[in-house]
Amino acid sequence: MATKIVLALVISLLAYAATGAEENLRPCRSSAEQCRLQRLRTLEPTRRIQSEGGLTEIWDPSEDELQCAGVAAIRNTLQPNSLFLPGFHPAPLLVYIEQGEGLMGLSHPGCPETYESESQRELSRRRSFSRSRAGGSQEQEQRERRSDHHQKVHRFRQGDILAIPAGAVHWCYNDGNEELVAFAVMDLNNQANQLDLNFRSFFLAGGEPRQEGQRGERGTSRQRGMENFQSLFSGFSEELLAEAYDIPINIARRLQEDESRRGIIVRCQDEMRRMIRPDEEREDQERRWTINGEEENGVEETICTTRFRHNMNTLCESDIVSRQAGRIHLVNQHKLPILRFLDLSAEKGRLFPNAIYTPHWSMTDHRIVYVLRGDAQVQIVDNHGNTVFNDRVNRGQMFVIPQFYAVTTRVGNEGFEYVSMKTSGQPMKSPMAGYTSVIRAMPIDVLVNSYRMSPREAQDLKYNRGHQSFLLSSGRSSASP
Amino acid sequence: MATKIVLALVISLLAYAATGAEENLRPCRSSAEQCRLQRLRTLEPTRRIQSEGGLTEIWDPSEDELQCAGVAAIRNTLQPNSLFLPGFHPAPLLVYIEQGEGLMGLSHPGCPETYESESQRELSRRRSFSRSRAGGSQEQEQRERRSDHHQKVHRFRQGDILAIPAGAVHWCYNDGNEELVAFAVMDLNNQANQLDLNFRSFFLAGGEPRQEGQRGERGTSRQRGMENFQSLFSGFSEELLAEAYDIPINIARRLQEDESRRGIIVRCQDEMRRMIRPDEEREDQERRWTINGEEENGVEETICTTRFRHNMNTLCESDIVSRQAGRIHLVNQHKLPILRFLDLSAEKGRLFPNAIYTPHWSMTDHRIVYVLRGDAQVQIVDNHGNTVFNDRVNRGQMFVIPQFYAVTTRVGNEGFEYVSMKTSGQPMKSPMAGYTSVIRAMPIDVLVNSYRMSPREAQDLKYNRGHQSFLLSSGRSSASP
Amino acid sequence: MATKIVLALVISLLAYAATGAEENLRPCRSSAEQCRLQRLRTLEPTRRIQSEGGLTEIWDPSEDELQCAGVAAIRNTLQPNSLFLPGFHPAPLLVYIEQGEGLMGLSHPGCPETYESESQRELSRRRSFSRSRAGGSQEQEQRERRSDHHQKVHRFRQGDILAIPAGAVHWCYNDGNEELVAFAVMDLNNQANQLDLNFRSFFLAGGEPRQEGQRGERGTSRQRGMENFQSLFSGFSEELLAEAYDIPINIARRLQEDESRRGIIVRCQDEMRRMIRPDEEREDQERRWTINGEEENGVEETICTTRFRHNMNTLCESDIVSRQAGRIHLVNQHKLPILRFLDLSAEKGRLFPNAIYTPHWSMTDHRIVYVLRGDAQVQIVDNHGNTVFNDRVNRGQMFVIPQFYAVTTRVGNEGFEYVSMKTSGQPMKSPMAGYTSVIRAMPIDVLVNSYRMSPREAQDLKYNRGHQSFLLSSGRSSASP
């Protein structure tokens, strides 16, 4: 009993919502316009945009599942030494780094430029002049002009979740040796978005290449999928830009158009050596320290110093661990405070071959599940008891589990690895089998009468799974006495 | 003057919203899709589902009033010794117990099973074996297997309001001697519901009987009323269920289908003697103690120990009392803290014959009014000054008062008793006549010029009702001097 | 650097959202139904309602911009000694006083009538009777009947923003010598409104004059603009009103209809001399004191004593000041706490000739901009890089800047003065040029690769505007070294 209470408390703190005092702080979200979910499908991206430095794949936002969940999904692949151009989105974004590593800039208006570097010109200049000459205020000014200050740059690598607020400019640079693959979900139905639920992206540079074939594809695709990426600057008059930045008009023109149509991911000319990169090890150390020392209360952090990144592969932070069945790692607003404001969270699971994810439903959120490795048989059931989804899902595929719909997963022979994005900052699941299930919570009398079984059978139903919860090991155990 | 300030303070605390610091904690709710309210009607349930153990009546969710308010309404009648099968809803539910008494289970994932009982088998076993033999850990294990643990069971009786969160499994059992009648409103437009506004129910057992006549009826009813109650289990494959629960496949089949089609309310085989019931007297005592001792702050309560029940008949907790006109009992988030999270509240009124409920509008919520006894003439006026409702309402009928619409009620000769469910956890009304009315708040000069009356007439308009507020006694008083 | 940090902090506190701990208190707002914004337009009112004492002009609520922003806009002109009749709206209102001054009553149910005056009759009576005769309780009662008590009356004048909660009755009286002109935006998509997004007004007196021409005009206008102002009282039966107020039926009839059809603004018979007016000077002094002394924490204020008024012309409270380019005055929830509950804010700008408002987007809100004086060239760009708005705007015109759309303004030769209403209580802008811009926040390497420019050009782009932020002075500065 005591074990159970402790387990319940731990699970409550980690995985479930503290539905008590904190729930009133939960941001709001309106109900979907229409959920036509007679038949759910495994979804793959339908639109591909080839840029100079990589590939952008977009799931069709007009799919019924995505419209019900109010989200859009994108996968970006960046070649080494390529830059995803700066831009922003009208809704918060959760990004999972499937492969590779890189650097992300996330700009906030009003935050100071705390990263200071020296430009190459300054470096070469320093070689020819002795440092003793510096000191006069004019010299100081010139030096400041040539050294570069910029806002914080964040290192990320495979297994990271990145949380990006609505309207915040961000860019990504692949400084690794392999392709960088990032899967992202945009929460269009978020309260931060006061525009409609159409998928939109706002770029500050670049522009989508206008290829013949692709134009045709766009023509036939439905309205909601027709987003065409172009730079915001191209809509302003060049005279106004020149004056706003106090630059010559030929440079202003450079802001506006990119005649080579390199797309939204560009190959970099050199390897961005001027830019200061975070000392990774120290950043991680610091983070771990604040978590363990409970120094992190979400209040003392301002938006300028908040964390946007959480690694989902850290073994010691797994929330559900079963030696027989696998592990689950959750990240919610308690682990990554920015998620409270974005009202989103994520889960990464690594399930062993033939394990079963207990039948359950989500009380709080839609889930967008993206398969990372292996395969599994997934069954989703609606309120009429219909099996609306019963597919084998594989790597690179995505499916949506609507709120309240019951789901269970049986892992294949290779194991199963997935990441799921959830439309709530405080997600809560209700399991149907196992130690923390609703069946276990009910009196035997209720089970006996609900299912017309004997008290003995009802006891088996309640207790046969013993202390297993969420992740159930495969194979029938020995019969109970 | 001082009386008025005190009255204002008391009313503010009890009946009105503390629009100050607490309002920012109010959960959110989006505006209705479309409110076509040229003509409101008295509504009666249009669909009847006969189950083995009782009757379910559903108001047509496609009615304009219900769609504008974003709610659905249901009435369940349970025979004695019958069980409303376990299930949950995609939105919070407020239930009023119109008649009878019973037990409710409300399961929360992660909450401990704090009710411990011994199964019948254990009881009979104990008779044959002496207790001294027990002691070994294997024996202990076996004993634990046979005694039953379950989550808290709540006693409710006539006059209670029950608050049920979205996605939380609940069941009800009529252990009384008379029929149990419960009227429920489901708040589909609540932020807890991320599905669309269609009426849905998710059951863990049972299934709606498929009768011929009823099938036809469903075919002709509009889409939104076509909810068909079936168990979630029937959508999973029986092999998967057998494995998930670690039970033989023939018992798993028992979870799935109910070939006898007993419906969603079943007659119980015995009287659920194994189940532990709460000691009612002590529960009530405890509740009263915490209220008076102000020990209840909504923070120290976790979701596992929170109260879900409030009795609306307790005379000493009435909020508005008039010797001539009747009494009104309100329950909002201050009295029942769970209502803060559900963003719902309720009011029960017991008005004397010929009393008048002052003309007023709600500043915060739609109201769904259900008539319990007697009759009254109700007038509702829209923003164009049109009388959109002017009906005599009787027992068992329901009507909707849209937010901001002005309404007044004149009780018939038999008196009038009603319960109304409100789509706000902190409801606030603005009366048009009486001590706390907007007319009284305005300077006489404004009344004189607004209504082209003499200052004397304006004074009569403001002051003739004296200290009466909300509930106005019948019959013209003697003329004022 | 330090300057910048301080500037950043100051700006964060004043103009930007404290996206940290406070954001979770932000009221919610759902996304727009549909934003068809291929082409934005300068909007002028399309419907005119002439009342006895003034003119009401309404912008067509079916305009795409207004539907996307979820707002309605109205301009009222009151003749001297005229009264805008008491009524309320189903959504919060922000009002800007463009010209003149007056008195506003804002009634809250339950708030005490703290303004006490003596009626004229009482005044004349006092002359004939000596005061020494008073003293008996009956006499006291009579005296109380004749003196008038009413709720607080607020003085407002040109340059004020008034914030009016949903459902709160308010009236306005022009006691000045010139016309009173008020521009108002109603936030229909606010969480306070549970009706649909149609424009509605609820009046307690008066009624729109039914002229022939106007009736025809209404017939051709689209549904959403067809609001017809009539008194709520006209929908109740006169018997019921007579009884509710305990007044003779002929006075009750006076509440209901206004056969002369004076409209919703009436000319007053005398100059409302009976009504107590606030001592203006002391009110202002008090307000300033609480702001400087930081006594104002939003908690100790109850709804009965809260401030609803903020003057936008007070020079010493400007938030952005540039000697070359002008000043901007913001009012958000930190300056006027009631805005936290209304989830609205406002900005007033007074820009010098030829100044530039930096290209920027709003991260949090739609803006409804109303031109007060002068003219400016405004460019608005959408996510496809299309110039959706490129017009010269003039006095009395209105335009909408959708959330996330980039906008820049170039002031004409006469200067430019505007007020803009924002659909967020904590608005945040992201500038594209200047000291706090996203361009400045990015490393030079990112700019070099994004825009294919030399490091030298990227430095010019980042630093040429020096310390200027938001408001940019006109004319090219001397070239940088």
Outline the structure in words.
- Three copies of one chain form a homotrimer.
- Chain A is of the alpha+beta class and about 475 residues long.
- Chain A has three domains: about 200 residues, Jelly Rolls (Sandwich); about 210 residues, Sandwich (Jelly Rolls); about 35 residues, no CATH class.
- Chain A contains twelve helices and 25 strands.
- In chain A, strands 16, 17, 18, 19, 20, 21, 22, 23, 24 and 25 form a ten-stranded antiparallel β-sheet that branches.
- In chain A, helix 11 packs across helix 12.
- The first copy, chain A, is elongated.
- The N terminus and C terminus of chain A are likely disordered.
- At the B-C interface, helix 1, strand 19, strand 21, strand 23 and strand 24 of B face strand 4, helix 4, strand 8, strand 11 and helix 6 of C.
- Chains A, B, C: This is 11S globulin seed storage protein 2.
What's the total count of β strands of chain A? 25
What is the strand content of chain A? 25-35%
Uncertain ranges of chain A: 1-26, 120-124, 126-145, 211-225, 280-300, 476-481
Q: Provide the structure class of chain A.
A: alpha+beta
Q: Give the number of helices of chain A.
A: 12
Looking at this structure, what is the CATH superfamily of the largest domain in chain A?
Jelly Rolls
Biggest pleated sheet of chain A: 10 strands, antiparallel
Region (Disordered) (chains A, B, C): 108-154
Domain Cupin type-1 (chains A, B, C): 38-253, 310-459
InterPro entries (chains A, B, C): 11S_seedstore_pln, Cupin_1, RmlC-like_jellyroll, RmlC_Cupin_sf, Seed_Storage-Functional
Signal peptide (chains A, B, C): 1-21
